[in-house]
Amino acid sequence: MKIIKTILVATTLLALTFVGQASEWRALDPENTVLLTLPHGKVVIELAPQFSPNHVKQFIKLTREGHYNGASFYRVIDGFVAQGGPKDGSPLDKATKKLVLEGEFSVDENFTFTQVQTNDMFVEQTGFKEGFALGYNSKEQKAWMLHCPGVIAMARQTGADTATSHFYITIGQATRYLDRLMTVFGRVVYGMEHVQAIRRTEVVEGDTPVDPKYYTRMLSVQVMSDVAPSERINIEVSRTDTETYRNKIADRRTRDNAFFFKKPPPVLDICQTPVKSRRVK
Amino acid sequence: MKIIKTILVATTLLALTFVGQASEWRALDPENTVLLTLPHGKVVIELAPQFSPNHVKQFIKLTREGHYNGASFYRVIDGFVAQGGPKDGSPLDKATKKLVLEGEFSVDENFTFTQVQTNDMFVEQTGFKEGFALGYNSKEQKAWMLHCPGVIAMARQTGADTATSHFYITIGQATRYLDRLMTVFGRVVYGMEHVQAIRRTEVVEGDTPVDPKYYTRMLSVQVMSDVAPSERINIEVSRTDTETYRNKIADRRTRDNAFFFKKPPPVLDICQTPVKSRRVK
């Protein structure tokens, strides 16, 4: 009897462990995931239609039309952004319709997210929702995607509603002063090191300018569901709404580890708080 | 007479302009500048003996002994650090003496710097001194170099005073929780894009591990004054103690430009506030 009981307990524990592990990860929707193929590596981007629906819709439509295939990253500034798109003023470029800014969205009093910090320099509250870093102002009942490193956003002209198809990926310290003023519509979940290796187009004063023929090109940009299954890169991302994730954040805040021989201030920069990815078959 | 007066005024204006321009830049001291040659590009690092004298002294001594030539970047985590040094436990590694932490330094009541922000999440005040980003606590009368992207710091074991020769360069969102706990002793002033292109050694779960034979090596690390003049990269950096620089910061804070159709909060993240470099003959 004791053996059976032990087996039963062991089986239950095993089952719980499996359930527990499975629920800590979320598979990406291949209809809202993009594969950016660069000459030196592959990059996977998760889009956020729940926060920036029209930008995602247009980006997917243009991607399916082959709009970005062969386009250059023509404005790449170290520590800032890698921006690309079709040649300015080209027929392809001019044919794209302008988008109304989706820099922020309204929420109601039931809004919840996994709060990270309340004394951020730029906003009342920061936190994660579905893996994306958000700012939230409870009085305004507004939330918005933050300009953390590795987000993708639409470039625009001076006017708020002038974005079309040119996008940038942030490659340096969070450009938080752009929050709400630009539409972030996704984030890199795999291959960020390849984005970091995109050829810079701007050099310091006194250095040799870069010939545009060396600009990094996008070999292709594809919606993941259009990629042959054998060629797909399947990514799962850490869920950010679980007890486990909340505990991870709490541990990170307290730094309860001998390496921290004295403790840093118990605050977290949301853009320095990781949401992990893993690759699956 | 009118012509002469015009010439005199013009000459004076010209002289003032030259003086003004010249004083906005500071030439680096080649005795405290390092040239890191990677297979894919050259990187210039300004050392900070004024803030971390013993770390700089040891780093220069080791550099002159050829300690780093051929060493690998063996711990490179995207968005975090690129860490390198001689093989752990090798005779070269074991022969290096341990350094006492220089994570912060004492200042007196006459301490001044170019203040950037007073509501930073981690510290009472942030600002620049001689181009380096510092934190400053007036009550403690302590200041320290901040872990902004592109700083070089000594790695260590668990104990505070265990750093020897292995160093890291920060390659992502500022790891400010390491402030005061590690010794920052310089910053990259040229070629940061090449640091960003160092091969990552850690991959996400489920991805193919990187064979150490592909780790990026330091072809050489040299004190700039030891480099043949024709091979030197001569860099000047923006002075941060001038009225012009203070005005630049003030302008950056107010974002008085039509692109900002509504103004972001009037705060500056010091790690996102540039101190420019330029290359000279």
From TrEMBL, chains A, B:
Domain PPIase cyclophilin-type: 39-212
UniProt keyword annotations, A-Z: Isomerase, Rotamase, Signal
Domain of life: Bacteria
E.C. numbers: 5.2.1.8
Molecular function in Gene Ontology: peptidyl-prolyl cis-trans isomerase activity
Record keyword Secreted present: no
Signal peptide residues on this chain, from the entry's feature table: 1-22
Keyword Isomerase: yes
Full protein name: peptidylprolyl isomerase
Organism per entry: Thalassotalea piscium
